[in-house]
Specification:
The chain is an all-alpha fold and 228 residues long. The protein folds into two domains: 86 residues; 131 residues, no CATH class. Helix content is 66%, strand content 0%.
Length: 228
């Protein structure tokens, strides 16, 4: 029963994105199907409790019990987990931790900001999931690492064990910039002569770009949230 109710929360429609065409139709369809499965599962359990009063009275009662307490929770749990992992990549999901992340999201969407985050967002250098794309390293390892870090951060947020101002676990890696920028024509025109030192990490991207365009500009917003 707990698994089904948890799945019901997962099946709530996804956080809104910036435009209709950016919403995954498969994800929306899956959410709807998952909601139907959860309702059916709850219905089967209620029917079993009312009809058989918790007693096992033959194959039919066994079948309803197994499907309601076994099959449906497993299916909804597995599908729901995939949906949660997908939705955790949205900017709106980051903003839901408003006591800590809202200043970052505000700066990201601030058209007057000159931060790297705002420049990437307003110019749509990254079409969707901008927070996730910039804070996730390349490949499967990067995805797993990001999901684990996100679970830890979510735990700290809801247990109020976080500390402000927030700090990155480690300095921003060149790889997280180069996974998109490296070898592009525009990038090579400026960085071609010293690209090897960037690839090897002997020179940091933020050594140049951090001075004029820091990752985020939100001193006032952060100060406001620190007082809460």
């Amino acid at each position: 029963m707990v698994s089904i109710l948890a799945g019901l929360l997962i099946a709530i429609p996804a956080y809104g994105q910036d435009a209709q065409f950016q919403r995954d139709p498969v994800e929306r369809l899956t959410s709807g199907v998952l909601t139907i499965f959860i309702i059916i599962g709850i219905g089967l359990i209620l029917y079993s409790l009312i009809r058989y009063r918790g007693r096992i009275a033959g194959p039919a009662s066994w079948g309803i019990l197994i499907v309601g307490l076994g099959v449906f929770p497993i299916v909804t749990g597995m599908v729901g987990t995939v949906l949660v992992f997908e939705r955790a990549e949205h900017v709106e999901f980051c903003a839901s931790c408003h006591l800590t992340m809202q200043p970052y999201v505000d700066d990201l969407k601030n058209t007057q900001s000159a931060s790297l985050a705002a420049l990437h967002y307003k110019n749509r250098y990254i079409p969707t999931d901008q927070c996730y794309q910039c804070h996730t390293s390349y490949g499967m390892h990067g995805t797993v690492e990001a999901k684990m870090s996100g679970m830890i951060d979510t735990f700290k947020y809801y247990t109020r064990t976080y500390k402000l101002p927030l700090k990155m676990r480690e300095p921003y890696k060149n790889d997280d910039c180069l996974k998109c920028h490296a070898e592009s024509e525009k990038w090579l025109a400026i960085h071609g002569e010293f690209k090897e030192v960037l690839f090897h990490g002997d020179m940091k991207c933020m050594e140049c770009h951090g001075n004029e365009h820091p990752a985020h500009i939100f001193a006032r917003q952060q100060a406001k949230f620190e007082k809460r």
